[in-house]
Amino acid sequence: MADITRLKARTRADYPYVLEYRTRWSDNDMYDHMNNSIYNFLYDSVINTYLMEHCGLHPPSSPQYGMVVHSHNDYFASISFPACAELALRVNRIGNSSVTYEIALFEKGQDAVKSVGEFVQVFVDRATARPSAKGMDSRLRQGLERILVGGPRSKI
């Protein structure tokens, strides 16, 4: 994991895929900012949106699907309704059947990153719920490589 100083310095340019999210009134907690649980919900949503749009994932029927085995988040500043969030995604590492994502949350119109999270997924075969001996499906891997740090990136 990157150190906090480097994470706080993240910009949108560090991420090849960005998804916009309009916050809802119900996202706020009693402290008038987005509740911590919503960050994980949004991180999961941007990852799965990318997987469906660019990696051929069809959650109800794909032969493999990703199970989250680790998640972590660092919070730097709050965001609250009615702000529009921008969820920025990149892949920091791809293994045989696992992928490590980094997700940053920005507020539209502001440069400073609000939070940076990490999710690790292991892709498993639907029939066994275990990683395949053959590893990750090639279409999944190719899509993830497009947003891999240090890989052949293209702005999505």
What do these coordinates show?
The protein is α+β, with helices and mostly antiparallel strands. The chain has one domain: Thiol Ester Dehydrase, Chain A, CATH 3.10.129.10. Helix content is 21%, strand content 33%. The chain has a 5-stranded antiparallel sheet with strand order 1-3-4-5-2. The chain has 3 helices and 5 strands, in the order αβαββββα. A hairpin with a 3-residue loop joins strand 3 (84-94) and strand 4. The radius of gyration is 16 Å and the shape is globular. The longest helix has 19 residues, at 36-54. Keywords: Hydrolase.
- Give the overall silhouette: globular
Mean pLDDT rating: 93
In total, the number of domains comes to 1
CA radius of gyration: 16 Å
Secondary structure: helix percent: 10-25%
Q: CATH class, anyone? A: Alpha Beta
Keywords for this structure?
156 residues, alpha+beta, Thiol Ester Dehydrase, Chain A, 3 helices, 5 strands, globular
Topology (SSEs and partners):
Layout lengths: L3 H5 L8 E6 L13 H19 L9 E12 L8 E11 L3 E10 L5 E13 L12 H8 L11
Antiparallel strand pairs: 1-3, 2-5, 3-4, 4-5
Summarize this entry quickly.
This protein is an alpha+beta fold. Helix content is 21%, strand content 33%.
